[in-house]
Design brief:
Elements (H helix, E strand, L loop, with lengths): L2 E2 L12 E11 L16 E9 L5 E3 L2 E2 L1 H5 L14 H15 L6 E5 L15 E5 L3 H9 L4 E2 L5 H11 L2 E7 L8 H11 E12 L1 H6 L12 E2 L2 H7 L6 E8 L5 E7 L7 H12 L5 H27 L4 E4 L3 H9 L7 E5 L17 E2 L1 H4 L6 E4 L5 H7 L1 H5 L3 E5 L3 E4 L2
Parallel strand pairs: 6-7, 6-9, 7-8, 9-10, 14-15, 14-17, 15-16, 17-18
Antiparallel strand pairs: 1-5, 2-3, 3-4, 4-11, 10-13, 12-13, 18-19
Helix pairs in contact: 4-5
The structure holds zinc ion (ZN).
Zinc ion binds next to loops.
Length: 412
Amino acid sequence: MKINKHKTCRMCNSENLTIALDLGDHPLVNSLIQEAQLNLVDPVYPIKIYRCDDCSLVQIKDVVDAEEIYKNVDYLYFSSDMPGLSQYFGDYAQELKDSLIKKGDFVVEVGCNDGVMLEHFKKDYKILGVDPSTNVVIRALKNGLPVLPLFFSSRLAKQIKKEWGAANLIVANNCIAHLDDLRDLMDGIAGLIDEKGVFVLECNYWGGMVKNTNYSLIYHDHYSYFSLEAWVNFAPTYGLQVFDALVSPAQGGSLRVFLSKDQRPMSPRAKKLLEEEGITQLNTMQMSLNYAENVKNRAKEIKDLIQAIKKSGKSIAGYGAAAKGMTILKCSGIGKNEIDYFVDDSPAKQGWYTPSDHIPIISRKDAEKKLPDYFFILAPNYSDVIIQKEAEYIKNGGKFILAKEVVSVFPQ
Ligand SMILES: [Zn+2]
């Protein structure tokens, strides 16, 4: 795989980057393995987190070429397969329709996946999606959504504007952390958006990661970890400004930022969030170092719990073969000796194996024949949904291991 090495900050181009956290070597979490490849050794790449001394953006410097991740590997994450996401994006789209645009407006979604949000603009709006993962685009096209199977870039933005006109609303959800060239993204957005248009993005939130010691979001596909302050400082270079922001429940706490070209007063909730970041010293180097320490302690806590369970002769399986869980396992040194198999509801993942440890992924139905004493929930965002639908398993003595805000066993 090709590694793109960077010497400068992804936002402000400064060379003053200081290492905050070294997580060691990890396989590519989204590269699941087929049976025929099990005899191969999967490559691992280091994950090191840096903080920019100048603009405070937390980021990975050396990244695996995105082309490798999205084009050459079947990207197995279909948003529409995820429980609750259609409802979430339906409500989110409705809020934007009610407050920011009018019928007939042109809506562009960057990184639209299989169209889980774009679908909600299909009626009454002119729409266009852009996503580099061929297989999710095929799904979107099948559902009648116009999606370009390409990476969004300033060059593509110009071509879109030429053919379709300026966009009244551009949306980008859960894809900006995957973009290596944030400055080109912003060039593209600024060029494509109408003078009175709005750009709404949703990305991981560094504030939530620090608060909850959440490191499940750290993997090779996620290049940057964002605070609101970083966006507020970054946007003006491109003639854009932040006028609203909130923390949404998506992905266990995402940052939603609203940007415009025209001057708008900053909303009270955005001001409040910005103030909170200041009070908690979120964007300082010291906070990055505190976070690093907390991550190491959490990883050890998980390892100790898993080892104690194994020592008592009990079996453990993983629940949810999501990318997010893989970093958690790897940081605690947990692998095939501890986890017998994974269950995953996404049919696209069943029959595959996890990278590096080659743990099989099966359906929940197939797990029925060999239920473990403990399920380790590795799709932390869905733990409530999972526990709710596993009443029968719990009744029969089954337990869950949870690693959310704290490490715990349910029922105790
Ligand atoms: Zn910077």
